TrEMBL record:
It comes from the Bacteria. The lineage of its organism: Bacteria, Bacillati, Actinomycetota, Actinomycetes, Geodermatophilales. Pfam families: Abhydrolase_6. One of its GO terms (molecular function) is hydrolase activity. Keywords: Hydrolase. Residues 10-236 form the AB hydrolase-1 domain. PANTHER family: MONOACYLGLYCEROL LIPASE. SUPFAM superfamilies: alpha/beta-Hydrolases. This is Alpha/beta hydrolase.
């Protein structure tokens, strides 16, 4: 899905619970004369449900680069939410010097996410368990949001992803460590986190992205958890546009 026709190109990579249409109000707020956004579906998600694959970061990257090539984009920034934050770094490594900048929204770092036993059971069982999906979304937004909204987010994820793909991607984003490959990369990076996200908050970003990328900066969004595109879309778009305009 492409939104806008502007000269600044942005590849948008969604999260584990998302899809190309899982960006909240962000797409409708895009300044379409200044920016062009490609919102991509991974295999097994959205318009690509039922599509087979290995469901890996390398595959996401290869598919993403094929998609931007089909649009004739020679260079572009990459916006990644959650799992997409890990995938955007794989794209960076695979695309050579084509990537102008990275914007991570509550992004998974290149180190993966090591789980303790309790978290491993929760996340590992989420593919087939609606209640565990609910618990994860509720947890990562600070246990503070409307039950109706959380339930709708759960239903969206169930409707927008194949169970097999959803389960397989967990190992792709949580269990893959390619931090040595990105260490010291000079690309400009902006990481944006919500103050109410206990899983991928400021402390994790300081230990990973800010320690790995010398040109990285961090912004904490107030009144947001893990899903800033739904919780605080205007504030999120403002920082995204500010970063893009500096590139």
């Amino acid at each position: 899905m492409v939104v806008g026709s502007g000269p600044v190109k942005v590849l948008a990579l969604h999260g584990w619970f998302g899809s190309a249409t899982g960006w909240g109000s962000l797409p409708e707020l895009v300044h379409e004369d200044r920016y062009s956004y490609l919102f991509l579906d991974y295999r097994g998600y959205g318009a690509r449900r039922g599509e087979t694959g290995e469901f890996s970061l390398a595959e996401i990257s290869a598919d993403a680069l094929a998609a931007v090539d089909s649009l004739g984009w020679s260079s572009f920034a990459v916006l990644g939410h959650s799992m997409g934050g890990s995938a955007m770094q794989r794209v960076l490594l695979d695309a050579g010097d084509r990537v102008t900048g990275l914007i991570g929204v509550s992004p998974v770092p290149s180190t993966g996410v090591p789980f303790d036993e309790q978290a491993g059971q929760l996340f590992g069982g989420a593919a087939a368990d609606r209640g565990k999906r609910y618990a994860i979304i509720d947890l990562t937004t600070g246990n503070r949001l409307s039950r109706t909204w959380v339930d709708r987010m759960v239903q969206f994820s169930l409707d927008q992803s194949d169970e097999t793909a959803f389960g397989a991607y967990l190992d792709a984003w949580a269990g893959t460590d390619f931090s040595a490959e990105v260490q010291g990369h000079p690309v400009p990076v902006r990481v944006v986190v919500g103050e109410h996200d206990p899983a991928l908050g400021a402390a994790v970003m300081e230990q990973t992205f800010l320690a790995q990328y010398p040109n990285a900066s961090l912004e904490v969004l107030h009144n947001a958890g893990h899903y800033a595109m739904y919780e605080t879309p205007v504030a999120l778009l403002t920082t995204v546009e500010s970063f893009l305009d500096q590139l």
